Amino acid sequence: MPQAFHRAWALSLLVWTPVQLLNLSLVPPPLQPAVVSAVNVGWKATLSLLNAMQHSGGAESHELRRHSSMRIERLEEENVRLRGELAEMRERHLLLWEESERRVIPPLAT
């Protein structure tokens, strides 16, 4: 991941430094935002292409997704198990509470 960032950052320096030097020195101020917007279309397409190339990493990327989905499945199973345990504990707690309510507690002798 840091490689991708450094690659994009270096590319941005190569693209935007000359664009802005020319834009700010030669283009009239009212047209400067239009120049930046036009170059930005190509810049976003380049970043999108870099991102697609990085994420189509083949087997390594597929293995990472498979591992993540397996981990999610395990977490979901654990969640279901814990919810079942919680329901049992609530039921036991309710039974104990009802039992304690039925007990008659003798008054304290004064």
Which labels suit this protein?
single chain; mainly alpha; 110 residues
Describe the secondary-structure layout.
Layout: H1 2-26, H2 32-55, H3 59-102
Question: How does this structure look, described?
Answer:
There is one protein chain. This protein has helices at residues 2-26, 32-55, 59-102. It has 110 residues and is an all-alpha fold. It has a domain at 60-101. The radius of gyration is 32 Å and the shape is elongated. The mean pLDDT is 87.
Radius of gyration, rounded? 32 Å
For the record, give the distance between the C-alpha atoms at the N and C termini, rounded to a whole number: 76 Å
Task: Please state roughly what percent of the residues sit in beta strands, choosing from under 5%, 5-15%, 15-25%, 25-35%, 35-45% or over 45%.
Answer: under 5%
Low-confidence segments? none
Helix count? 3
**Into which percent range does the helicity of residues fall?**
over 70%
Largest sheet: none
Order of secondary-structure elements: HHH
Choose one word for the global shape.
elongated
User: How many DSSP-defined strands?
Assistant: 0
Structural class: mainly alpha
Mean pLDDT: 87
